[in-house]
Amino acid sequence: MKQFDAIVIGSGHNGLVTACYLSKAGMKVGVLERRDTIGGAVCTETMFASGANPNGFRMDVGSSVHIMIHQTGIIEELGLTDYGLEYIDLDPMMSYPVPDGKGVIHFFKDLERTLESIASVAPEDVSNYRAFVDFWGKINKGVLKAFMVPPKGSSLMSEMVKGQIRDGAMFRKGEQMPGLQRILGSYGEEVKRSFRSPYMQAAITWFAAQSGPVPDQSATGDFAGWQSMLHESGAKHPRGGSGMLTQAMKKLVEAHGGEVIANAPVQRVDVRDGRAVGVVTEDARYFSADLIVSNAHVQTTMNKLVGREHLSPELFKRVENIQVGNGFGMVIRCAVEELPEYTAAPGDPYIHNGMQLLAPSLEYMHRAIGDYQKKRPPEDPAVLAMTFSKVDPDVAKDGKHTLFAWAQWHPYELAGGLKWDDIREKEAQKIYDVVTRYAPNMKDKLIDWYIQSPLDIERKHGLLRGNVMHVEMNVDQMFMFRPLPEMSQYETPIRNLYLSSASCHPGGGVFGAAGYNAARVILKKHKRKRFF
Fold first, then answer.
1. Does the model's pTM come out above 0.85?
2. How far is the C-alpha of 532 from the C-alpha of 530, rounded, in Å?
3. I need a labelling partner for 400 at 20 to 30 A (CA). Which of 160, 323, 407, 496 fits?
4. d(C-alpha 260, C-alpha 28), whole Å
């Protein structure tokens, strides 16, 4: 039996953020990871080594682009650069190659450079984009503050209205009601209201869709509006791969006397008299601790690791009924001979510096959503391409390149008797074909690939039903409702058992806010010195 002050179940980035803050507060922390590599969905693995490519390729097997964590101060506060973390700026953050002609819209961190690029393709939207960023920028400074604290007992909307009444900073005089309407509306309508060019509409809608809900979902306007914050933080990629973030946090925990233990899948939380006192792994190892923090999915934590016998029938059912949704997307991680040469922008010096938005039109995306709603993979998927070997030679050292292509609206549960294990390669080829339509030079340039269907994502990362955000990011599952009102403060009905995953406020993405907020709650509850 090993004893710790705190045990964290799962080594995803939110769990490691919590582990780091508890470690810096003087606790001996043990992190237990079920897989043989740590990092959860922020992990990089070496693949496809061969005689021609002896170094292989550094492949991210989860998130790749880090945006929101750079708006939190967590990296700086923890001093993670002292543990080997180095970030590369992606600038432009993303680019939209025109699908049916020449030209590309680059979204740089610098707003003025972005406006210059928009002017080259969609001059009618230069002033519209400036107004869009100005409107949402004011709102999102307050929203970010709300993300970095445990949710209050009132809704975000109530807090926003109070703030507007108090200091009037959010909306200009006379614009309060139209402004609230934009926030309560869907991001699809917000984009169509804000921009005239079909290219701008497609680009902003596709990036907003990365949060999960479909474009007509109510109260999602800010999924598009968060674009304003990219001009504050930019987008970044860790040198050597996304997993270098979690590796740095692992080193911090170990430097403070803790342990990060791989190949230690937790079978159950040991609950005695309503209190969590330890965990048992699948190979019967026992670890005891004064407190347990679960970075696993909320349904896995409560209904599997804790179990029905320690929960009321009502709570067990309510956890079971949390909306997880029917999948999210799938991704192919490709080793390729060369970088895509987009026909819209031949020889463009910037397009491979960041994400490439390959979604030709709103109608194209709506067709993909229609397929998804019929429980079928999209016939023509929308794709987000990423070519990090252009800016980070460490991920492909033998003169070749990496190409990641994320596609969305792929149902986990399929209709018509289809099974993901049977169709995954066919659907992967559809995604690669989208890239070749934009960049014909990529035909026959595939060396090898690693496919992650919604089912593969669930198997590898424990992300139930392939939802990379854990649970749906709908308004009724955000803030004080995430994952349930009585667990929104990162505490559970089991004493000394806490939650820190993306199942909690404020949700998914490489953010770290859930782990940060959980650490604040724990340290306050246990009266330990805080490092914030």
1. yes
2. 6
3. 407
4. 11
